[in-house]
């Protein structure tokens, strides 16, 4: 076949691009690459013909480069290469990052395992090098089976803490704290050996243990050592074997649960009811994705569904990457059938009765108290005898004299009795803990704690993972491998998991979607297969309406009750326009400029304005804990925090995700095009703006080159007569 001039030109360009990409992918020298690819050129005409036929028959355009790359890969000529599914560029393992599209590739199978392993290893290395809590010196008092009692002197560790053994410049995961205090009881990980009398150093190691658990799970997958149940969960992500549950089953009640599991006055709305019914209808091996935008009642749905499943005889795991999300669900459930494993974020009275340690002590009652009192007295006696023996030995060295076998014998007897009593107590605690875990119908835990004692070998019927968009694939799998039915609740329009070591990829939330459990599955099955919660109950309609229109495609509808959510106090005098309760969402234009500082950015003019606004809010009687300041950059956060002092929370967007405040003041900070691209990322701004319940105040330079969501908010504020230049009447500090 003769190839025309135009087609030949296209083909030549395609071959040159192919040559360049293969060279880049294989890191070839030009001469070697040309030699290896020479065999491809005789079939150029045939390839060009195939491309034209393909385009004509499919009636859909595909670039020559992408077509030729996929064709060659299909022929097995470059089967080891991985191409970007969007632009056709060759991706270099192990991260498979596309330089052209600035994103990670959506992989499967062994390549996905390789990608995840690389990310986790990088994060683990960074965690080891990072500054953490100073190691605590401890002495191994006693080892009994998988339980070790450590004398630490200071009560720094609490129930549920994962701890690591520190030696030199490295840390090795040691175990999980069963009981805290000065004498810490630790359940040791398999393979850990300690000897009585050893002097060791401990540090908190939740993140380190998390990475190790995920890496071990990946290793078992790569070596083919997963159980059948675990394989089923892995197939969802690694083979795209996703079966979305469609069946619905009615609940016994649709009333909203109040703290303690009491039936409330109000019922779930239509979207919440449907989500509960779909969860109840799940069959073995099926998955349900629930999109829960801010304030749509996902906690209510999870609590109601978990209770209904428990009533049907199921054992349910409620998990999340944060303690806070787990606690929010558990406090709505009956304490009689619900158990909290791990360490809650805040041990307040609502959560304390759910805790494993609390229930163990309640069950054992006086028996445990009496035993611990004996242990306490024996420890005191041991300390007294040790001190006395030391003094007598020093005296004998100075003056001479006989040995003191009586005191030494008494010390040996005391230590033997102490060991027996500690072993008795440890056995009692272990047996009662296992009994409570076995009896509980609903267990709440972070995803990390799912893979640790006492849940290591516990199975469930259904696992419900909250905030799943912030959970990495392997982190979600720590929970999913424990059940045969899975519910993932998340919001793919908010921020994905945080990875500190991915450089530019970490700055672009969308680039990390392949690593997010929820976002990955939504991308694979499509938004239409996910179930949406659409009624919003938390924020003033003017605040949430902007996010609904410009982020969620109009899917969120503020409930009529939201209209009454606004500031109760009206500001008289200065800043009255900015703090007007009838303007729930305002934009304050500040003619500032960004400055570089230690790899971050800050804006001095915005710092002054934000501090002035916050101080005025406090003068009006708004509680410090109900006000939040969000900045996209750490440097800006630090400068604002320094000026405001303690009391008002100032943080970055990532730290505020999943939280809420009555008033949010957001400092845009950026004024240059590169910084603006980061600061006004759609998901980042969405998280920042939807934290506010009663008042959202956005402080930024409107004349900067905002092109995306921030520009839309500026126009939105103008349309509501809520665009206020700083220094205008009602928007300046008193002279």
From TrEMBL:
Q: Which residues form the DNA2/NAM7 helicase helicase domain?
A: 268-498
Boundaries of every DNA2/NAM7 helicase-like C-terminal domain copy: 516-702
Q: Which UniProt keywords apply?
A: ATP-binding, Coiled coil, Helicase, Hydrolase, Nucleotide-binding
Coiled-coil positions are 361-439
Q: Which GO terms describe its molecular function?
A: 5'-3' DNA helicase activity; ATP binding; hydrolase activity
Membership in a protein family: Belongs to the DNA2/NAM7 helicase family.
Protein name, UniProt field = AAA+ ATPase domain-containing protein
- Source organism of this protein record: Thermofilum pendens
């Amino acid at each position: 076949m003769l190839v025309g001039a135009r087609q030949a030109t296209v083909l030549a360009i395609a071959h040159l691009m192919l040559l360049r990409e293969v060279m880049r992918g294989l890191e070839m020298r030009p001469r070697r690459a040309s030699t290896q690819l020479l065999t491809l050129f005789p079939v150029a005409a045939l390839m060009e013909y195939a491309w034209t036929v393909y385009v004509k028959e499919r009636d859909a355009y595909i670039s020559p480069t992408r077509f030729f790359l996929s064709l060659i890969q299909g022929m097995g000529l470059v089967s080891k290469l991985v191409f970007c599914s969007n632009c056709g560029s060759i991706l270099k393992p192990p991260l498979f990052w596309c330089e052209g599209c600035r994103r990670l590739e959506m992989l499967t199978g062994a390549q996905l395992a390789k990608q995840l392993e690389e990310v986790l290893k990088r994060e683990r290395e960074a965690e080891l090098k990072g500054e953490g809590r100073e190691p605590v010196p401890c002495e191994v008092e006693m080892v009994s089976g998988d339980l070790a009692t450590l004398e630490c002197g200071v009560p720094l560790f609490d129930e549920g803490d994962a701890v690591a053994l520190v030696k030199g410049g490295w840390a090795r995961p040691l175990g999980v704290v069963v009981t805290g205090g000065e004498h810490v009881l630790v359940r040791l990980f398999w393979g850990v050996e300690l000897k009585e009398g050893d002097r060791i150093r401990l540090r908190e190691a939740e993140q380190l243990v998390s990475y190790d658990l995920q890496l071990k799970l990946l290793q078992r997958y790569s070596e083919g050592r997963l159980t059948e149940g675990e394989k089923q969960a892995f197939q969802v992500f690694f083979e795209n074997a996703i079966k979305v549950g469609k069946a619905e089953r009615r609940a016994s009640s649709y009333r909203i649960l109040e703290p303690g599991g009491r039936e409330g006055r109000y019922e779930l709305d239509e979207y919440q009811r449907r989500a509960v019914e779909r969860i109840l209808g799940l069959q073995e091996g099926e998955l349900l994705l629930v999109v829960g935008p801010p304030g749509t009642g996902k906690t209510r749905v999870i609590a109601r569904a978990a209770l209904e499943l428990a009533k049907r005889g199921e054992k349910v795991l409620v998990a999340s990457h944060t303690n806070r999300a787990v606690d929010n669900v558990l406090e709505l459930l009956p304490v009689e059938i619900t158990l909290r494993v791990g360490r809650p974020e805040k041990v307040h009275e609502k959560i304390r009765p759910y805790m494993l340690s609390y229930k163990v002590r309640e069950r054992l009652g006086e028996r445990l108290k009496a035993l611990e009192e004996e242990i306490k007295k024996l420890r005191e006696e041991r300390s007294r005898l040790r001190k006395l023996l030391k003094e007598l030995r020093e005296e004998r060295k100075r003056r001479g004299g006989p040995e003191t076998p009586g005191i030494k014998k008494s010390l040996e007897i005391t230590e033997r009795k102490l060991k027996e009593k500690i072993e008795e107590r440890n056995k009692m605690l272990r047996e009662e803990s296992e009994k409570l875990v076995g009896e509980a119908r609903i267990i709440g835990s972070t995803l990390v704690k799912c893979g640790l004692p006492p849940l290591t070998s516990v199975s469930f019927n259904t696992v419900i993972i909250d905030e799943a968009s912030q959970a990495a694939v392997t982190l979600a799998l720590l929970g999913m491998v424990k059940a045969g039915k899975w519910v993932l609740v998340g919001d793919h329009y908010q921020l994905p998991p945080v990875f500190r070591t991915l450089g530019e990829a970490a700055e672009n939330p969308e680039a990390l979607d392949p690593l997010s459990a929820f976002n990955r599955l939504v991308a694979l099955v499509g938004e239409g297969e996910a179930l949406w919660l659409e009624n919003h109950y938390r924020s003033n309609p003017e605040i949430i309406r902007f996010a609904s229109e410009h982020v969620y495609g109009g899917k969120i509808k503020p409930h009529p009750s939201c209209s009454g959510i606004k500031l109760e106090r009206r500001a008289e005098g200065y800043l009255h326009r900015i703090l007007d309760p009838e303007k729930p969402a305002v934009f304050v234009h500040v003619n500032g400029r960004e400055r570089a500082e230690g790899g971050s950015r800050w804006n001095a003019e915005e710092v002054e304005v934000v501090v002035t606004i916050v101080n005025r809010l406090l003068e009006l009687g708004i509680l410090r804990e109900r006000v939040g300041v969000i900045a996209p950059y750490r440097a800006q956060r630090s400068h604002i925090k320094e000026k405001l002092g303690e009391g008002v929370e100032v943080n970055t967007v990532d730290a505020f995700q999943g939280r809420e405040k009555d008033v949010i003041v957001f400092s845009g900070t950026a004024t240059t095009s590169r910084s603006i691209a980061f600061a006004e990322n759609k998901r980042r701004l969405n998280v920042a703006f939807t934290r506010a319940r009663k008042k959202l105040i956005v402080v930024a330079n409107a004349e900067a080159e905002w092109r995306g969501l921030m520009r839309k908010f500026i126009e939105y504020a103008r349309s509501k007569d809520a665009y206020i230049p700083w220094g205008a009447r009602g928007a300046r500090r008193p002279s």
